[in-house]
Amino acid sequence: MRTLILLLSLFTFSAAQVVGSTAKPFTLYTVAGKSVSLSDHSGKVIYINWFGNTCPTCLQEGNDTQTKIADRYKDQNFVALGIDVWDGSANSVQNFINQTGIKYDCLLNGGSTASDYGVQYQKSTVIDQQGVIQFYDRTNKISAINSTIDGLLSTTGLEENGAAVSSFELKANYPNPFNPKTEIPFSNDREQNIHLRIYDINGRLIRTLVAARFAPGNYSLSWYGKDDRGKAMGSGVYFVRLEGEHTQRMRRILLLK
């Protein structure tokens, strides 16, 4: 019997959602009875706050998810959702909303959905525009959550004469030199996880522009000369590194103020 329980536990763990996997669909209901499905927000960056409705830490961290995440991206291609993993009543979830000041939709009876995702309370998930999970960690890691969302929202697709992509390439940014913004185009020849990062001349990581899964195509990312904390960088030489799963490319760029 113990062996069977262990095997079932391992199967459940292996089936759980992880970073890089496609988010599983769900349909849940708000306190007011409104139906909300993951597919309702297809094409958007989706933030999920997994909470327990009476969890003290969830109550403590809840307001930050509103003021530092939901409010920060409210006018962009983004939506925030809360999911109660403790399957509380509508009244208990409403009390959670009242105590935290959360304004985004909080959904009831999320225990089964949480199991599908392999998550527990006090966790956060970020899903990209293609429906792929790009972040899963503690809710209090606000800076890491913001960095992930910033990178995803800065990604814009480009078509180049409709030509098929045959190479993995980091192209010349424009303008260069630049101030305060430059476009960094690249091409991707296969579906894979991609990182695009900015380093200073000493090799220190300055900014992660994106860490996401991309389909083949031509893309461009914007950099506004700021680090991951939003601090404006000074004039100087910086390096852009494009990393795929099997190769990487690097270029030198110049910020001139």
Explain what you see.
- The chain is 23% helix and 35% strand.
- With 257 residues, the protein is α+β, with helices and mostly antiparallel strands.
- The chain folds into two domains: 152 residues, 3-Layer(aba) Sandwich (Glutaredoxin), CATH 3.40.30; 99 residues, Immunoglobulin-like, CATH 2.60.40.4070.
- The strands form four sheets. The protein has a five-stranded mixed β-sheet with strand order 5-4-3-6-7, with helices on one face. Strands 8-13-10-9 form a four-stranded antiparallel β-sheet. Strands 12-11-14-15 form a four-stranded antiparallel β-sheet.
- Helix 2 packs across helix 3.
- The longest helix has 15 residues.
- The radius of gyration is 20 Å and the shape is elongated.
- The N and C termini lie far apart (69 Å).
Briefly say what this structure is.
With 257 residues, this protein is an alpha+beta fold.
Question: What is the count of β-strands?
Answer: 15
Radius of gyration, Cα only, in angstroms? Answer: 20 Å
- Give the topology string: H per helix, E per strand: HEEEHEHEHEEHEEEEEEEE
CATH level-1 class of the largest domain: Alpha Beta
End-to-end distance: 69 Å
Strand content: 25-35%
Low-confidence stretches: 1-15, 156-162
Instruction: Based on Cα principal axes, name the global outline.
Output: elongated
Q: How would you characterize the largest beta sheet?
A: 5 strands, mixed
